[in-house]
Amino acid sequence: MIRAVPESPERDPWYASWFGEAYLALYPHRDDYEALRQAEWAFSLLGPYARRGTVGFLDLACGTGRHAVELRGEGGVVGLDLSLPLLVEARARGILPRPGYLRGDMRRLPFRPGTFGAVVNFFTSFGYFDDPAEDETVLREVRRTLTPGGVFLSDLFNAERVLSTLVSQEEKTVAGERVSIRRSYDPASRRLTKEITMGSRPPLRAFREKVRVYLEPELKALHERNGFDVLETFGDFDGSAFSPRRSPRLILLARARTGGA
């Protein structure tokens, strides 16, 4: 059974409706092989920390459970997501032992302090909220649920590279359906917006993604302010060093500071 959560205080937040069947249709390339490669690298890095927790891993914003099923071997894994359709997909996986899945809001994690040895957050599942202070709330919640000395691995797109190569409009066909994507960046709000229209004939379906942009120094400072010591940054899931101009990802490894913030 997947638990329900209280409604978000935001008015019609975009992420409440986007992460469902349309999202899965638009991103079919996010497959299990890709997740296996990413999770294997993360496991090799985080395994020693995972052993310290009552539960090994929390996959925060776990989606369809692609990564969670690959992390289940070191002290167990729990996947948490706000999207019920994605969690239904996750629970339908026939891999045993099955991770535990919960429906929840990352700003209010339903776990006791010190539960996890490691928390992972893949594929830019951070920076969604209208108020930037809520990103700090998320980090404090992650810190609270980590055992002393536990670690948080966050994976975001490399904002500097994305903004310098931003394609403002794109048309493509996915599973026989026309998809139109418009991208824009607002420097005032630091939000990157993607407006998506799907369908070959009316009625068309329209969705929106909005993500706050963080450069590497800003992301490090955000973690440091909220109870973490940053250990390392990587540019991709091969463990390569982060390069602002060249790296496709910004992956940050941070350790929960003993004694709090």
The percentage helix is 25-40%
Total discrete domains: 2
Mean pLDDT metric: 89
Give the N-terminus to C-terminus distance in angstroms.
Answer: 35 Å
- Which blocks of ≥5 consecutive residues have pLDDT under 50? 1-11
Broad structural category: alpha/beta
CATH superfamily of the largest domain: Vaccinia Virus protein VP39
Within the CATH hierarchy, at the fold level, what is the topology of the largest domain?
A: Rossmann fold
Series of secondary-structure elements, N-terminal to C-terminal: HHHEEHEEHEHEEEEHEE
The assigned CATH architecture of the largest domain is 3-Layer(aba) Sandwich
Main sheet overview? 7 strands, mixed
For the largest sheet, list the strands in their spatial order.
3-2-1-4-5-11-10
The number of helical elements comes to 7
> What is the count of β-strands?
11
Gyration radius, rounded: 18 Å
Q: In what range is the share of β-strand residues? A: 25-35%
CATH class of the largest domain: Alpha Beta
The 3D shape can be described as globular
Walk me through the structure.
With 261 residues, the protein is an alpha/beta fold. The chain has two domains: 188 residues, Rossmann fold (3-Layer(aba) Sandwich); 48 residues, no CATH class. 26% of the residues lie in helices and 31% in strands. The chain contains seven helices and eleven strands. The strands form two sheets. Strands 3-2-1-4-5-11-10 form a seven-stranded mixed beta sheet, with helices on both faces. Strands 6-7-8-9 form a four-stranded antiparallel beta sheet. The chain is globular, with a radius of gyration of 18 Å.
